[in-house]
Write a structure and sequence with these properties.
This protein is mainly alpha-helical. The chain has a domain at about 10-70. It has helices spanning about 10-15, 30-35, 40-55, 60-70, 80-85. It is flat.
C-alpha cells in the first residue's frame, strides 16, 4: 500500500526544480528554490530582495528568466481522494446555448 503522502522535501527532490502551485507569492520561483534545496522560503525571498536592491536589477532579470524556464509543479491529489476515484473523473462538459435558444436540461 502506498503512503498517504510524501514529505515535501522528498517530493521536491524527485521532481527537480519546479514552481509549486501552492505557496506562491508572485510566480513561485523563490518557493521552488526553497522546496528544492530545503531552505526557508522567507529567507530566499529576503535574499532576493536584498540582491535586487544591491544588484541594480540584474537579479530581477534572473527572476524573470527563472519564471519562464522553470516548469509548473504538478497538481497533488490526496491519496484518499485518488483511492475514491475523484481524481480520475473528468469534468463534464455542458452545452453552450446559442443566442435566442433555450438551454437544454
Amino acid at each position: 500500500m502506498a503512503p498517504a503522502y510524501v514529505p515535501v522535501q522528498e517530493a521536491a527532490a524527485q521532481a527537480g526544480l519546479v514552481r509549486p502551485r501552492q505557496g506562491r507569492a508572485i510566480a513561485g520561483v523563490c518557493a521552488g528554490f526553497a522546496q528544492r534545496y530545503g531552505w526557508d522560503v522567507v529567507i530566499v525571498r529576503l535574499v532576493l530582495v536584498l540582491a535586487v536592491l544591491v544588484g541594480c536589477g540584474t537579479p530581477f532579470l534572473a527572476y524573470i528568466i527563472a519564471w519562464v524556464v522553470m516548469p509548473n509543479g504538478p497538481y497533488f491529489v490526496p491519496a484518499y481522494a485518488a483511492a475514491a476515484g475523484y481524481a480520475a473523473q473528468p469534468v463534464p462538459e455542458q452545452p453552450v446555448a446559442q443566442q435566442g435558444e433555450q438551454p437544454q436540461a
